[in-house]
Amino acid sequence: MKIGLVLSGGGARGIAHLGVLKGLLEQGFLFDQIAGTSAGAIAGALFANGYTPDEILKIIETTPFYRHVRPAFTRMGLLRLDKAEALYRQYLPHDRFEALQIPMHVVATDLSAGELTVFDTGELVRPILASCSLPGIFEPYWINKRQYVDGAVLNNMPVEVIQDKVDFIVGVHCNPFTTQKPITSIKGVLERSLILAVRSKTRERLAQCNLLIEPPELSRFDVFDWRRARDLFRIGYQYTQTIKPQLIKTLESAL
């Protein structure tokens, strides 16, 4: 029985993927394929490279990522990510999909063609950064003379990318939608609108997961809450602990 893992985008909330992963590993889950968008691409690639969830959390907490972005002057975004390439190569030194311990698939949106691109061979770091290029915040990322933006624009839960490669899919979605939090700022309006737009295209893909994990407490967090990394990790882990009986039953049926 081959098990696949699909990790959504969600900005800082994607750190919760790591806590969920830790909980799944403790219950005996092993993964044969991984697909991820944006933050899910980062978490998935580092995990596929052999880092433990706790090690990835430590990388996030101790690395000054803000020093590796710079202002954009092209009027296509506020910030540029190209300087971050060297940073990611510190942790992914082989910079090749083929060097990963688990096959990984990263999705990004081809801005010119208006279609989704799946990266799973060749260079690794630049496709990850392309998948994270949130429109309006980061300028489009260039790969082979093509412009790419965040994969979540077209597919924030790339289930179909590995659907024919595995027998069972575990999906981790970090963008639960609730109406309890009032909108009080322009940033809040933009964030809620983005979540609504993305979720409308994600609902069908969520239903295709054999096991879907979506910690509801994540709705309290902002997509830019990077300084609350440990809290986000804890929420992912603790929620996975609360569904332990379901996980045991699911794993037994999958195997």
Task: Output the keywords.
36% helix, 10 strands, Patatin, Cytosolic phospholipase A2 catalytic domain, lipid metabolism, alpha/beta, 8 helices, single chain, Acyl_Trfase/lysoPLipase
Largest sheet composition: 8 strands, mixed
The total beta strand count reads: 10
CATH topology: Cytosolic phospholipase A2 catalytic domain
Portion in strands: 15-25%
- Rg from C-alpha positions? 17 Å
Average pLDDT works out at 88
Unreliable spans are none
Instruction: Kindly provide the name of the CATH class.
Output: Alpha Beta
Structural class: alpha/beta
CATH superfamily: Cytosolic phospholipase A2 catalytic domain
Number of helices: 8
Helix content range of the residues, please? 25-40%
Quickly give the CATH architecture: 3-Layer(aba) Sandwich
Order of helix and strand elements from N to C terminus: EHEHHEEHEEHEEEHEHH
User: Shape from CA axes?
Assistant: globular
Distance between the termini: 6 Å
Q: How many structural domains in the coordinates? A: 1
Q: If you had to describe this structure to a student in words, what would you say it looks like?
A:
- Keywords: Hydrolase, Lipid degradation, Lipid metabolism.
- One of its GO terms (molecular function) is hydrolase activity.
- InterPro entries: Acyl_Trfase/lysoPLipase, NTE, PNPLA_dom.
- This is Patatin.
- This protein is an alpha/beta fold.
- The chain has a single domain, classed as Cytosolic phospholipase A2 catalytic domain (3-Layer(aba) Sandwich).
- It contains eight helices and ten strands.
- Strands 1, 2, 5, 6, 7, 8, 9 and 10 form an eight-stranded mixed sheet that branches.
- It is globular, with a radius of gyration of 17 Å.
- The model has no long low-confidence stretch (mean pLDDT 88).
